[in-house]
Automatic annotation (TrEMBL):
Organism: Vaccinium darrowii
Stated name of the protein: Uncharacterized protein
Superkingdom, taxonomy of origin: Eukaryota
Length: 733
């Protein structure tokens, strides 16, 4: 019955697998960069599927080739042509330049990929050696493709290795520093010339002192658009700051001197330039962790290994085309067409990859393709030097200009390519969740299947765009705190506040302090989320910016707490238990009022009615303020009602207070989120909290800094301490 299926598979198995492998490589090449620009599951799921199938198809294909070469009577009776396909599958195992790891965990498996590479190389070499005994006329093109495949496969293994946590952390550790005082020991025990050790002057005065960021010689950020490719000085300044802070991903500390340099620079920036800088830095980090950039860029215009790989592939194509009619491969016409498809597809990938490298931010920073002073042409003695120092730079500049023009056209017609991250803020609302519950049976079923979070994300999570008003407000609030946090100790105190720092500095907010002081972060967040929602829904006609900012940040922070627990693990506490208990209370409350409402007019209670019902209900008749204590439940439903009543008394000032409190709650969570969690989100479209975290680091806020004696107190306090000895001396005189 299924004999025709068996016959089709025996005839087309290898052909189908190798074409599938080429398709997967092409799909990943063009679609993988979208991962950092969108969090849409319709984009990420196909990329995930293609990423996992790509390696499987390459490994399976090499196995089919080894089997086919031993079957002289099979559908692939020409083994030398089939053996020519083996290096293509080995090349596909190296993957495209745009993706090496789908998640950070893949980088830790670099040794496994290296083992796969060795096994595949051995299998392919075995197939190639078998064909040599039968006078393989394609041995030279096959050997050239082996060279290209080996280069690209090792590029991926090396990229995974460099992005692994331990190797990445080791690369951040500086050279050993013996300290400036070691010259005393050298002077005491032996002369500098005899010891062979550095002299006192060499230790005390570094030959190339690091320029201070923020001085008059540092490139500042001019006005430019997202798709503007001609901002070399801007990218140099951004990359300089990225080099300083990227060690935070490896749990390294930020020195006080580096903090002062970065802080002085970012305090001068506009909100647009500040967020653009941190978004670009996060893109640099994405390239290091998830692509081949650390290997193929090499901080140089000329990559010898990639040049050899491309030339080998092109030479293999030329040789195969010349040898094809001579050796009569045409009796397997379909196989010859597949071979041409593989060769042309590989060459097209190389050409496009070259233009992508030319126009990348890395190339703009290190190569400066449009800077004439970068090309210092020495005296030309022979034709070889002429080609290397004149022809290649001119060709490279032409390719750069063409690549920029093509990229700008693509960005114009595909707006998503303009983004550096998704630019979306997910929203999760507790009141909406309680008013639209699932049935208990259905909820229990999906819970057993482990689909609760996935289906909750589809039903209860919506997204909003990150707009300029929210961006400017967040930056200005952080800037105010940065200006006050001159000392690192002060910065740590400010960032340890969970809304109380704002409340103590605003008039008429003393009654709100009990709802922020001496409470767990998850309790504060859920409490203020419900109170914000009650105030927002009942004043829906108001469209103030601060009101919208409060609403967006409130729903976003609850989304992180409930739907992204890995990012909030350091501050979550008993968030899930508290959330469920609060929802249980709200559902019982709404169920009672819904039954009453249906009895009256038969209509279901909506969100506006629900919030008004909560505010109209006099809880104080049953409970005493300021907080409601439960025996075992962790619900904060009634506490939120009391807080909303207190906020209502502030009239329009409440939105100013709420917006500032939510920025403080956002910054508190941002600087306590594990750096590894921030890095993980880069391949999922990014998160606003990651940009806020990096911006806080640059503004000198947080606890990622080494506290030196000079930064334990404010400058004013240090000046007073310095004056005290002089005053005592005057008294003695």
């Amino acid at each position: 019955m299924f004999s025709w299926i068996q016959l089709w598979w025996d005839t087309w198995d290898l052909r189908a697998v190798i074409l599938l492998s080429l398709f997967l490589q092409t799909f990943l090449f063009f679609s993988a960069p979208l991962r950092k620009r969108t969090a849409n599951s319709l984009v990420t799921i196909p990329i995930w599927l293609a990423y996992n199938l790509a390696d499987v198809s390459a490994i399976f294909g090499v196995g089919l080739i080894s089997k086919s070469c031993g079957d002289a009577l099979g559908p692939y009776a020409n083994p030398e042509l089939v053996a020519f396909w083996a290096p293509f599958l080995l090349l596909h195992l190296g993957g495209p330049d745009t993706i090496t790891a789908f998640a950070l965990q893949d980088n830790e498996l670099w040794l496994r990929h290296l083992l796969q590479l060795v096994v595949q190389l051995a299998t392919s070499a075995y197939v190639f050696i078998l064909t040599l005994s039968s006078n393989n006329q394609l041995w030279l093109p096959t050997l050239l493709m082996f060279i290209s495949a080996l280069i690209k496969s090792t590029e991926r293994s090396r990229s995974l290795y460099l992005a692994s946590w331990h190797r990445f952390r080791d690369s951040m550790i500086k050279e050993p520093d013996p300290g400036k005082s070691c010259h005393k020991l050298m002077d005491a025990y032996c002369p500098n010339q005899e010891s062979g050790l550095p002299s006192r002057q060499e230790i005390s005065e570094p030959p190339n002192p690091e320029p201070i960021v923020g001085d008059k010689n540092e490139p500042m950020l001019p006005n430019f658009k997202y798709n503007d490719g001609f901002y070399t000085d801007v990218l140099e300044a951004i990359y300089h700051h990225f080099e300083i802070v990227k060690g935070l991903i490896a749990d390294l500390k930020f020195s006080s001197r580096e903090r002062d340099k970065s802080r002085s620079h970012f305090l001068k920036l506009t909100p647009e330039h500040a967020f653009l800088s941190v978004e670009t830095e996060l893109n640099f980090l994405y390239d290091i962790l998830f692509t081949k950039t650390p290997v193929i860029s090499c901080y140089s215009r000329f990559n010898p290994s990639r040049f050899v790989s491309s030339v080998s592939c092109l030479a293999a194509f030329v040789l195969f085309h010349l040898m094809d009619p001579k050796h009569k491969f045409l009796h397997h016409k379909i196989d010859v067409e597949i071979t041409y498809t593989l060769l042309i597809g590989t060459i097209i990938h190389d050409v496009i990859a070259f233009f992508v490298i030319c126009t990348s931010n890395w190339n703009t920073v290190f190569v400066k393709p449009l800077d004439p002073s970068y090309y210092n042409i020495p005296p030309i003695d022979n034709i070889g030097v002429l080609i290397i120092w004149v022809f290649f730079p001119v060709l490279y500049r032409i390719c750069f200009i063409i690549g920029i023009a093509i990229r700008d056209k693509i960005f114009h017609f595909i707006p998503i390519m303009n983004r550096r991250w998704s630019g979306c803020i997910s929203q999760y609302n507790l009141i909406f969740y309680c008013l639209h519950p699932r049935s208990k049976k259905w909820d229990k079923l999906i819970g057993k299947l482990g689909l609760t979070n996935i289906l909750d994300g589809k039903k209860y999570v919506v997204t909003k765009r990150f707009n300029e008003q929210l961006r400017d407000f967040i930056f200005e609030e952080l800037k105010i705190k940065s200006e006050k946090a001159v000392a690192i100790k002060t910065s740590m105190e400010i960032c340890s506040a969970k809304g109380d720092w704002v409340l103590t500095r605003e008039d008429g907010c003393n009654n709100l302090l009990p709802y922020t002081l001496h409470a767990d972060y998850d309790k504060i967040l859920i409490l203020w989320h419900i109170a914000t929602e009650l105030c927002y829904i009942t004043e829906e006609g108001n469209s103030e910016n601060e009101q919208e900012i409060s609403k967006v940040l409130s729903d976003y922070m609850l989304y992180l707490l409930i739907m992204e627990p890995s990012m909030m693990s350091a501050v979550a506490g008993t968030a899930q238990i508290r959330f469920r208990d609060t929802c249980a209370t709200a559902k019982l409350f709404f169920r009672a009022w819904e039954a009453r409402k249906k009895a009256e007019d038969g209509h279901k209670v909506d969100m506006i009615q629900a919030c008004r019902i909560i505010l109209e209900f006099d809880i104080l008749m049953v409970f005493n303020p300021p907080t409601v204590k439960e025996d075992t439940s962790k619900t904060v439903f009634f506490d939120a009602w009391i807080l909303a009543k207190e906020l209502k008394k502030l009239d329009k000032d409440k939105w100013k207070i709420l917006s500032k409190v939510w920025v403080e709650l956002l910054s508190y969570a941002a600087c306590r989120c594990n750096a590894n969690s921030h890095a993980t989100q880069l391949s999922k479209g990014g998160q606003l909290i990651s940009s806020v975290w990096l911006l806080m680091v640059h503004l000198g806020l947080g606890d990622q800094f080494e506290v030196s004696e000079d930064h334990q107190t404010d400058p004013q306090s240090r000046d007073e301490n310095h004056q005290q000895p002089d005053q005592r001396d005057d008294d003695l005189v």
